[in-house]
Each structure stands twice: as C-alpha cells, then as structure tokens.
C-alpha cells in the first residue's frame, strides 16, 4: 500500500488514531524502523498538551501536539505521512522512465524508487570518474527477530549508510541518502559528459564565482520547479539535483545540446557573450540591450546579464513564460518594494519569444514576461557560504549579514507581504558583503485568507507551512532561524549539513555550537519555535541584535581601560 493510498484513507477516517495505524502498516511492509519520541508535556493538569515526533530510520519529522498522548501521536503520524506522500510523488516521477522500459515485478513501491537512485548515482560516478565503494554488514535484529543488512556507500566526498531486510534494499536506501546529499551540495548534475552546470540560485540574478570548476549550460530535466510537489529539494523548491533519462546514455542517436565550455571562473562577457539574436527574438529586448550574457537557466526561466544601450548600465533581465499566477505575483511584489536590502525592480514588458522552459525550442511564439532588475554580480549567499567551508568563522560578519537579511524581511512584512521562500539561494551579495533579498515568485499578501499549502522550499519551510493554509509572517521567521544557524555554523561539507539538519530544525544544536554561541542559541530557540505565535517579529530580532552589538562594545571598552 502506498503512502498516497494511506493518505486517501486517512482523509475520511472517523477514528483519531487512523493516521498512526496506517503509518505503522506502511513502515512494517517496508521494513522501516518507526519510533515515536516524547518531546514534551506542558500545561496545567486539566489542560495538558503533549508533543510527539515521528522518527523513521533515524530521520526526524516535524513535531505535533495534542490534548492527549494518543492524539499527539496521531497528529505526528499525519505530518509524516503528508511529507512521505509528497516525496513519493517525486520518486515516481524519477522512476517513470525506468518503469516504462523494464518489465513489472513484485517489488514494493519503495524498492522501485530506490532502484533508480542507485542507477543514477552509479552513472554519475562513471561520468565524473569517481570510485564507488560499497561495504555490507549483517546482523540479527533482536526486536524483529529477523536478519538485517546495512550498506555503507562512498562516492567521492559523499558517504551514507542504509539499512534493510537484505543487501539490495540496504544499498538502495544508502544510494537515496547520497542522492539527497548531492542536492544539498547545490550542484545540478546530469549523467552526460556534455551537460553539467552548478545551480546558482532560483532568481538567477546572481553571478556564480566557482573557481576551478569548468561548467556548461544544460536544459533543466529534473522535477518541475514550481509544481507544488515536495522534495529542490523541488514544489518543493529546494536546490535540485537533476538527472536526465538514463536512455540518453544508451542511445547514441538521441540529440544532445552541443557543449559550450565556459571560463573556469565563469567570467561573463567573454566566453558567454553573444549577440542579442542568439538569446531572444523579442524586438524590444534586442533594440534596448546589448552585451547580452546568459547567467542562469532553470525551471523558473532564464536570466540574462545585459547592458542598456541608452544609459550604458548593466542589469539582470529575467524572462519567464507568462502563464502562471506567480509571474504576475513576483512583478507586483517587486514593483511595490523599495529597500536597500531588496533586489531593485526597474521595469517589465510582455512579448513573444522562445520558450524559456525549452532550450531546444526555435519557435518565437511563446508569450513571455521580461522583468528588469538590479544585477547582483557577487552571486548568492549560498555561494558565499560554500566559499567559507573549512575556513575560520567570522561571527561579527555573519551577524552583520543576518542583520541585513532581517532588515529586509522586516520591510517585506511592513508592506503586508510574506516572502515564503527565504533561503541562501534566494539572497544575493552585492559589493563588499552587502545583502539583497530576491525571488518573490512565491510572495503572497497577508490579506489573502486562504494561502497555498506546501509552497516553498521544504528544507526551509516551517511546520505549519507543510500542511496548513492558515499561516502568516511567522513562516519567514522560521526560515530566518535556519539561515542564522547556517551563517554561524558553516559545516565543512554539505553532507555534514544534511546529517544535522533535522535536529537543528527542532533546536538540537551541535555541542560546539552551544558552547560558542550561547546567546545566539537562545535567539534560535525562539526563531525555530514549533508554535508560530512564539516566534518573535523581525523588528524584535533587530532589537536583540542591536543589544548584542552594544554589549560587545561595552565589554571591549571595559577590557581596554
């Protein structure tokens, strides 16, 4: 029985514990270890509130509360099922090409999904010339009274351990974890030597500076970027690791996009600079701008660096298909905002052009919207963090950057808007560590009573954003908490982030972080509160940061006299 099937039965279930019963059945059929962790018990005796968290194979899901332990357990199970349901939708989309070419068998739903992960990881290792090492171990489970296997899979800098009833199942689960670790490394990898390009952020007005890495443009072939599904890790919009159909490797007659190497440091205006006709058929675009360079491409459209012929200044022009509500929403939000820490909007126009979502399209009959914005040439905050891995941390600089982000968020909220997709990939660096918030494609008005469930990047979404349509500015505050942690505690590798992320979301921080940042830890506990009403306003955060700065100045003055 699939998680989707479980969810369908849950919707009409009259009994309060039906969710936990079906989650138990789902895990039992797949040999997954299910644990319910008692988080807290609060309130007076006549009005107790129990909080419980689901943990499956060591993976922690959002906490849930209830007036009794049974109700809290069932609420936690419901949250887990919703998340698993969305993930399985993405797994099915990934495995659909395989299922068409392979005969059906009696393997479970989860096994077929894991099978594709192993195949893709193996292909990626071959293309990149990396050694793939697999180690197995076996034991007898005293609880289930059944033999079990574990697999340690290592490929380059990635390593994961998977558990299962047999070697094959353990190997597939380890491959899935490696796949997800690759997502967090913010690299879009396609199993073809002809197409590989790091992902630089969803808005795309930032220019990446990834030294030593030669890249080339590719057409986005992964899961849809804004389709409401969860999982860019995308709708859910987390940084997405995308793969093409493995048949491309087997069929030499399949037409591939020709390789166009870029300079190792991605220097714009040299290797990528072309005439306007190369990128657009729109007359206004070509008559208004020259020195046109493609700086980002993905499910959201294409972003170009351009020079205005009239004033000589450089801008970012984002071209998107004019067929989504989010397109109009982004323009309206940008046009309304004017703040030092918000990417500046200049103008927009509508025209007919190549399909922004189809790199092979030669037709210029697609209705498109062009958004002219400020160009942020220093890249994204995500790039900034990556460049500081394995380097000495700078607490003062990290707090300064966080203060700038919070200032931008305070302004957004003052305009009765919610960003809904705050993350390092949507925050841009300008000049010397100056910060700008961008990508308002998911921004929504506080006046909207019914908001969309599950919109945003799952990795940065608040608990209420997963399942409820009744939420407010607090969802941005939760994301701010996660960004603050990333700024202060820059892990040496992306896989290290993956290992601790679930605990960070529930305020379980590494020991060295607690020791080094005791005051910041208290702030984080408020920002990452499971209850939205317990999170502070952006203005309160700025007040706290100001007090923190003043304390340091006073302390410094005391020690110097």
Automatic annotation (TrEMBL):
EC number of this enzyme: 2.7.11.1
A GO molecular function held by the record: ATP binding
Top-rank taxon, per record: Eukaryota
Entry's Gene Ontology cellular component terms: cytoplasm; nucleus
Pfam families: dsrm, Pkinase
Protein kinase domain segment(s): 289-561
Protein name: non-specific serine/threonine protein kinase
Organism: Ornithorhynchus anatinus
Source lineage: Eukaryota, Metazoa, Chordata, Craniata, Vertebrata
């Amino acid at each position: 029985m699939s998680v989707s099937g479980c969810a369908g039965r849950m919707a009409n279930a009259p009994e309060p514990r039906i969710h936990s019963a079906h989650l138990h059945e789902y895990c039992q059929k797949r040999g997954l270890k299910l644990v319910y962790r008692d988080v807290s018990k609060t309130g007076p005796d006549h009005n107790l509130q129990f909080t419980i968290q689901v943990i499956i194979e060591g993976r922690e899901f959002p906490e849930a509360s209830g007036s009794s332990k049974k109700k809290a357990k069932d609420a936690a199970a419901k949250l887990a099922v919703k998340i698993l349901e969305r993930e399985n939708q993405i797994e099915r989309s990934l495995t659909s090409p395989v299922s068409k070419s392979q005969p059906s068998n009696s393997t479970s739903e989860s096994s077929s999904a894991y099978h594709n992960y192993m195949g893709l990881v193996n292909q990626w290792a071959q293309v990149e010339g990396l050694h793939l090492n697999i180690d197995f171990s076996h034991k007898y489970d005293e609880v289930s009274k059944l033999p079990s296997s574990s697999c340690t899979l290592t490929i380059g800098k990635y390593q994961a351990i998977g558990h299962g009833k047999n070697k094959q199942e353990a190997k597939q689960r380890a491959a899935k974890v490696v796949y997800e670790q690759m997502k967090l490394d913010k690299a879009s990898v396609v199993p073809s030597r002809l197409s590989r390009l790091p992902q630089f952020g969803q808005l795309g007005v930032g220019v990446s500076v990834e030294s030593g890495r030669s890249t080339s443009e590719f057409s986005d072939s992964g899961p849809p970027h804004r389709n409401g599904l969860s999982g860019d890790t995308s709708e859910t919009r987390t940084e997405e690791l995308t793969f093409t159909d493995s048949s491309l490797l087997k069929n030499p007659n399949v037409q591939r996009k020709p390789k166009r190497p870029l300079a190792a440091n991605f220097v714009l205006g040299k290797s990528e600079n072309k005439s306007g006709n190369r990128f657009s058929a729109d007359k206004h675009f070509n008559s208004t701008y020259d020195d046109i360079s493609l700086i980002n491409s993905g499910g959201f459209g294409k972003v170009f660096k351009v020079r205005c012929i009239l004033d000589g200044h450089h801008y970012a022009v984002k071209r998107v298909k004019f067929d989504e509500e989010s397109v109009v929403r982004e323009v309206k939000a940008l046009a309304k905002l004017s703040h030092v820490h918000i990417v500046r909007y200049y103008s927009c126009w509508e025209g007919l052009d190549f399909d922004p979502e189809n790199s092979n399209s030669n037709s210029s009959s697609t209705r498109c919207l062009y958004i002219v914005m400020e160009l942020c040439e220093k890249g994204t905050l995500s790039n900034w963090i990556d460049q500081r891995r394995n380097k000495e941390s700078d607490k003062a600089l990290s707090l300064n950057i966080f203060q700038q982000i919070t200032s931008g968020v305070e302004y957004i909220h003052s305009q009765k808007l919610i960003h809904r997709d705050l993350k390092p990939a949507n925050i841009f660096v300008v000049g010397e560590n100056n910060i700008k918030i961008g990508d308002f494609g998911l921004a929504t008005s506080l006046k909207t009573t019914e908001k969309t469930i599950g919109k945003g990047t799952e990795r940065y979404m608040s608990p209420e954003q997963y399942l409820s349509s009744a939420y407010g500015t607090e969802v941005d505050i939760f994301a701010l908490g996660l960004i603050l942690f990333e700024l202060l505690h820059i892990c040496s590798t992306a896989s290290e982030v993956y290992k601790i992320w679930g605990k960070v979301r529930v305020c379980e921080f590494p020991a060295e972080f607690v020791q080094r940042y005791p005051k910041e830890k208290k702030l984080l506990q408020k920002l990452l509160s499971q209850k939205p009403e317990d999170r502070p306003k952006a203005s309160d955060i700025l007040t706290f940061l100001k007090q923190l700065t003043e304390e340091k100045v006073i302390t410094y003055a005391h020690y110097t006299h």
